[in-house]
Design brief:
The chain is of the alpha+beta class. It has two helices and three strands. It has a three-stranded mixed beta sheet with strand order 1-2-3, with helices on one face. Strand 2 and strand 3 (77-81) form a beta hairpin.
């Protein structure tokens, strides 16, 4: 039995694990914090994030956000506008 030793079991590669971890975080996150707000999703960082995670975040925030942009503040690209 693995249940006493692990909170979650994921079969796949590192990217599959990262997606599962982000999904778990998103399930617990209160996205109403972004109600009618502008959001910039940063595209670059020290640690690469799977594209699937960006899409999942976009789908979840699109339900509440005023608008969503992708990139840096000085050169962001509009992705969604209510």
């Amino acid at each position: 039995k693995i249940a006493p030793f692990a909170k979650q079991v994921v079969l796949g590669n590192l990217e599959t694990l990262e997606i599962a971890i982000y999904n778990c975080i998103f399930e617990q996150h209160d996205f109403s914090l972004y109600q009618q707000k502008s959001i910039i999703i940063k595209g670059c960082g020290k640690h690469p994030i799977p594209e699937t995670v960006f899409v999942d975040f976009l789908i979840r925030t699109q339900q509440v956000a005023k608008n969503i942009l992708f990139g840096e503040a000085c050169s962001s690209v509009p992705v969604y506008k209510r």
